[in-house]
Amino acid sequence: MPKKVFLICIGLIAFLIALIPRIPLSVIEPSVVKALRSANGGRPMSALALYGTLWKGQISGIRLGTLPALDVTLKASPWSLAGLRYDASVTIEANGVGGSGQTQLSLSGLSLIDTQLLLDAEALHLPANFKARGSVTVDLKKLDVTRQGLCKSATGTASSSLLRSLPSAFGGWSGPDLEGPIKCKDGYLTTNLSGRTNDGDEVILAISTNQSKRLVYRLEVRSTDLILGTTLRASGFNSDQANIYVFTG
């Protein structure tokens, strides 16, 4: 590469790095609103607010499904612009939700890398009488989303301790810890967590985005314990099949 061209490239990169702290985050608002509306089943993001700059900014009022309103803080890596993409560290905060990781925005779509999320029981809006204590932990190694908002590929795991401690009304029954892989299915993000108690009771927690791209879950308990079954039905679980109790949200 001729010396002059090399110097021009270095100068251009330096200019972009110096410019980032001055560019308001609001310049990407149309793209952000489009992506979030797609992820929320087309529902408007009227309360969405963007603060700060591309260097360090915050997006507040993000609503996905039934989750509490999320606040996302972005801190950019200026060197990423040399590769025609926007890399930033991400911090996610909400009532009952927390997380951090890395995001990468390019012409082909959005990626989340090495991202961990923690959802408390209160964030999932489980049955009021269920009163589960614990959390769901999501460990995403990488998630690739297309420009149309479809899940392209995903690797990672999810685990849950929601059933470890339940009210006395459950007769001392304690559910197992749950674990399962995260993957893309037909363009949607999904995970099936499962576990089994020492007595043979099986629990399956399926979490996914549905066709309207809202976050949904299905909690299924399979048990021959009649007392447990009665308690589950009283807590809002349905039982259309013998010994199988289901709650959806």
Number of helices: 3
Average the pLDDT over all residues and give the rounded result: 76
Radius of gyration: 22 Å
Order of H and E elements:
HHEEEEEEEEEEEEHEE
Tell me roughly what share of residues is in helical segments. 10-25%
**Biggest sheet layout:** 14 strands, antiparallel
Can you tell me the residue ranges where pLDDT is under 50 for at least 5 consecutive residues? none
Please state how the strands of the largest beta sheet are arranged side by side: 1-2-3-4-5-6-7-8-9-10-11-12-14-13
Structural class: mainly beta
> Which band does the percent of strand residues land in?
over 45%
How many strands appear in the DSSP assignment? 14
- The general outline is elongated
Give the termini separation.
Answer: 59 Å
What can you tell me about this protein's structure?
By secondary structure, the chain is mostly beta strands. It has three helices and 14 strands. It has helices at residues 3-19, 29-39, 226-234; strands at 49-52, 56-62, 70-77, 86-94, 97-106, 109-120, 135-146, 151-160, 178-185, 188-196, 202-209, 215-222, 238-241, 244-248. The protein has a 14-stranded antiparallel beta sheet with strand order 1-2-3-4-5-6-7-8-9-10-11-12-14-13, covered by helices on one side. The protein starts with a helix and ends with a strand.
What are the main properties of this structure?
14-stranded antiparallel beta sheet; elongated
Gist of the model:
The protein has helices spanning 3-19, 29-39, 226-234, and strands at 49-52, 56-62, 70-77, 86-94, 97-106, 109-120, 135-146, 151-160, 178-185, 188-196, 202-209, 215-222, 238-241, 244-248.
